[in-house]
Amino acid sequence: MAEEVKLFGACGSPFSSRIQVALKLKGISYEYIEEDLTNKSPLLLKYNPIHKKIPVLLHNGKSIVESLVILEYIDETWKANPILPEDPYDRATARFWAKYIDEKCVAAAGKAFWAKEKEREKAVEEAWDCLKTLEGALKDKKFAGGETLGLVDIAANFIAFWLRSFQEIFGVELLTEEKFPDLFKWSEEYVEHPIIKEYLPSRDELIVFLNKRLQNLK
Amino acid sequence: MEGKESEVVLIGTWASAFCKRVELALKLKGIPYEFVEEDLENKSELLLRNNPVHRKVPVLLHKGKAIPESLVILEYIDEYWTKAPRLLPDDPYQRAKIRFWANYHDEKIAQAITPIIFSEGKEREKVIEDFQQLLKVFEEGIERDFQGKSPFLHGGNLGFLDLVVGTYACNYQAFHDSIAVVFETEKNPQFFSWLMALKDHPRIKETLPPSDKLATKYKELFLPPYSKRIATIRERYLQSPKA
């Protein structure tokens, strides 16, 4: 049976980029469908009726949503170049840090960027707490898998690229070399990784993406 | 001869559903463990050392290593002790759907209890409606995603979603007696019927805390005067932007 793999994504979305990286790592051919997030397609709404978000992976007609769930699905379905380690404890550690990035760091960074003037200081401090935790995790070798990209490396794309780009655009200093030297160094190397690099948006594309997000928030 | 290293220790509290789900998983797999009751108002060095990031329960200690976060722990248990019963099915698509709904339960449904606890009057009525709407989405989603083959009590066995939902929502009587009525058969007939069936399952029955004891605990925690810990949670909720 021919494999039919489609990915509904949006240029500029870190979550979408994660899936593209994983599919590339595994050497999986797929059709990419760009979604306009200000005008979501009927297909997207059909395949992700609950959250109505990208990314959505369609595999032989079956839809899988939520980037971390999709990454696990991809790893379990296509065995080449594993994203998750074999050892159960290492797997648990990877899941823990991937969740931490999404549930705490992405949320905290978002709050800091979009915060109103009077709430900004507190939001920035919370984001710094997250980055401090990641800096510690990095030192303990909990992520930055080296040559091979694992679940946490892929999930950390937000930190290495999007967070750093947004802080320039919004003028809010979060991940600085002075405060987080190891994390900063890691982020510089990260964005040079050939597979990661291929799926990073340009500055212009990022601005377009942000404007659409703003439109949706209004 | 098993050394100390292979001992399983669960740091938790008797009243926490997230801890109960881990206990239930260990019991189902027949894994002996030591339960260490934590005082959340006065967190132990053991907890803080083993979950420095979140400082929360449950934390599983196994072979000297710590695993926090209940959903991560459940997957660890299933992957380390691969003997039956399996908590997750083998098929990647089924696993993906179960993970999706476990996340939905914890991130949406369980989180929606906080506004109910800390609101009153008309506002409380509204957030209860919101909660019941989330349950409706859950009901419809399970129906659509599992198409009649309910993941609950599949073949009479307890699986991942049974543990996630059952240990949390089967405590509804205690919540109704102490805070507010939120699970109603007229509003969410399907969800309510799952709860009825789960509540009667012997392993769930023996694991859940007694309803009156839990109701007393909920009153202690969630009615004023609040402990410092609960006051902080309440403050954070009151300050957060409302939908």
UniProtKB/TrEMBL annotation, chain A:
GO MF: glutathione transferase activity
- Occurrences of domain GST C-terminal (ranges): 87-214
- E.C. no: 2.5.1.18
One annotated GO biological process? toxin catabolic process
Highest taxon in the source lineage: Eukaryota
* InterPro entries xref list: Glutathione-S-Trfase_C-like (IPR010987), Glutathione-S-Trfase_C_sf (IPR036282), Glutathione_S-Trfase (IPR040079), Glutathione_S-Trfase_N (IPR004045), GST_C (IPR004046), GST_C_Tau (IPR045074), Omega/Tau-like (IPR045073), Thioredoxin-like_sf (IPR036249)
Pfam families tied to this protein? GST_C, GST_N
> Where does it localize?
Cytoplasm, Cytosol
Q: Where is the GST N-terminal domain?
A: 3-82
The alphabetized UniProt keywords are: Cytoplasm, Detoxification, Transferase
List cellular component terms (GO).
cytosol
Coarse class of the primary localization is cytoplasm
Reactions catalysed, as given in the entry: RX + glutathione = an S-substituted glutathione + a halide anion + H(+)
Q: Which family does it belong to?
A: Belongs to the GST superfamily. Tau family.
- Recorded protein name is glutathione transferase
UniProtKB/TrEMBL annotation, chain B:
Provide a GO CC annotation, any one: cytosol
Q: What Gene3D superfamilies does the database record attribute to this sequence? A: 1.20.1050.10, Glutaredoxin
Enzyme Commission identifier(s): 2.5.1.18
PROSITE patterns of this UniProt entry? Answer: GLUTAREDOXIN_2, GST_CTER, GST_NTER
Keywords, comma-separated and alphabetical: Cytoplasm, Detoxification, Transferase
- Source domain of life: Eukaryota
Against InterPro entries, the record matches this protein to: Glutathione-S-Trfase_C-like, Glutathione-S-Trfase_C_sf, Glutathione_S-Trfase, Glutathione_S-Trfase_N, GST_C_Tau, Omega/Tau-like, Thioredoxin-like_sf
Q: Which Pfam families match?
A: GST_N
Chief site of localization: cytoplasm
Give the GST C-terminal domain ranges. 91-218
Protein's GO biological process: glutathione metabolic process; toxin catabolic process
Q: Which residues form the GST N-terminal domain?
A: 6-85
- Say yes or no: keyword DNA-binding present: no
Q: Which GO molecular-function terms appear in the entry?
A: glutathione transferase activity
Q: Which reaction does it catalyse?
A: RX + glutathione = an S-substituted glutathione + a halide anion + H(+)
The entry's function note states:
Is involved in the conjugation of reduced glutathione to a wide number of exogenous and endogenous hydrophobic electrophiles.
Q: What is this protein called?
A: Glutathione S-transferase
Instruction: Give the organism the record lists.
Output: Rubroshorea leprosula
- What does UniProt list as this organism's lineage? Eukaryota, Viridiplantae, Streptophyta, Embryophyta, Tracheophyta
